[in-house]
Amino acid sequence: MSPKAMVWLSVVLSAVAQVFLKHGLNCVKARMTRVRGTSAAVAMAVLGQGWIWLWAACFVAATGLWLLAVQRLDLSYAFPLLSVGYILVNVLSMVFFRERVDEMRWLAVAIISLGVVLIAQS
């Protein structure tokens, strides 16, 4: 796999991981509202939540890909591409959690996107 593909896959996995984490924590929150939540009970609920384990797996894979890619790419090129994650998380949050993303956030996403396009073309 090319280093650029590794960066892009790392970014996508990181964004998907955030969706898994949010969903897992929403499940924990729902469970904790039904039972009395001591710190130990919350910790056990978090550790027993499959979505949180999926988050961890995606995050580990994304980090591994990032480490491999950065060995072969200029950091000044690769690092700004991580900001695509902001775009993906906004879109995924709208799709999976029905979150409302207001105009100011979309303006920020557009500015980030422009910067990513400029860097990717360099």
What this model shows, in words?
The protein has 122 residues and is mainly alpha-helical. The chain has one domain (3-120). It is 84% helix and 0% strand. It has six helices and no strands. Helix 1 (3-34) packs across helix 2 (39-47), helix 1 (3-34) runs parallel beside helix 5 and helix 5 (84-97) crosses helix 6 (103-120). The longest helix has 32 residues, at 3-34. The chain is flat and about 55 Å long. The relative contact order is 0.16.
Radius of gyration (CA) equals 17 Å
Class derived from helix and strand content: mainly alpha
Whole-number tally of structural domains: 1
* Mean pLDDT level: 90
Amount of beta strand? under 5%
Low-confidence sequence ranges: none
Ends: how far apart? 20 Å
Say how many strands there are.
Answer: 0
Query: What coarse outline follows from CA principal-axis ratios?
Result: flat
How do the SSEs run, as a string of H and E? HHHHHH
Q: Please outline the major beta sheet.
A: none
Question: Given the structure, what is the number of helices?
Answer: 6
Helix content: over 70%
